[in-house]
Amino acid sequence: MNHAETFYIKAIDRTNINNPVITLDSQLLFTHFAKTENYGGVDFDIRAEVGLLSRNVVFRGDPETSSANMYGAIIFMHSQGDDSIIGKISYIELRDVGQAFKVGRYPIHFHMVGNIMQSYATGNAIHDSNNRAITIHGVHYLTVKENVAYNVKGHTIFIEDAIESRNFI
To answer: Could you tell me the CA-to-CA distances from 28 to 4, 5, 77, 94, 104 in Å, in that order?
Structure first.
C-alpha cells in the first residue's frame, strides 16, 4: 500500500506494435505484482495501478504556497436546481487543489443542483489534493468516469449525503 511511485516517461519504443517498451526516468524501487488468477471459473487481472497524471490543460493552485498552506484551487458548481447548470469537466489536470480542513472546498464539487443529466467529470487527472478529488452532493444523473486520483487527502470520490441517485461512477 505504501509502494506508490511517480515517474516521467523518457521514451516509448513502438518497434513492436503489440508490445511497446516504455523507458522511465529512474528505476523502480519496488516490485509491482501482476498476475491473472482464476476464482470459480472467472479470471481476475490483478496488477499495479498505472495512471497518467499529466494533461495539456492544467488547473492548479499556487505552486509556491498551496502545498505549504494546504489551500489549493477548487471548481465549485452550484445553482438553483434541476438542469439549471451544466458542468463538463474533461481531460484536464488538476494539481495543488482542495482546501484542507474546510467543508465543501474540494477540487471538483457538484453541489446541491439536483438533476444534471448533461454534466460530467471524465478523464481528469487530480493529484496533490489537500481535500478529496471529486465530490457529488445532492446531484443526480451525473457521469464520473475514467478519472485518475493520486496523492489525495481523504476520499477520492466522495458521495456526501447518500441522497444522491442515478449517478454513473
So the answer is: 10, 8, 40, 25, 37
* C-alpha cell recorded at residue 102: 474546510
Q: How far apart are the first and last CA of the chain?
A: 23
Task: Quickly tell me which residue has 515517474 as its cell.
Answer: 7
Cα R_g (the chain), whole angstroms: 18
**Residue showing cell 511517480:** 6
- What distance lies between CA 33 and its chain's CA centroid? 22
Domain ranges for the chain: 9-47, 58-159
pTM over 0.70: yes
* CA dihedral sign of residues 75, 76, 82, 84: negative
Do 102 and 131 touch, CB atoms closer than 8 A?
A: yes
Q: How far out from the chain centre does Cα 163 lie?
A: 22
List pLDDT tens digits, range 24-61: 999 999 998 899 999 999 999 998 889 999 999 999 99
What does the alpha-carbon distance between residue 14 and residue 53 come to, in Å, rounded to a whole number? Answer: 21
Chain centre to alpha carbon of residue 87? 16
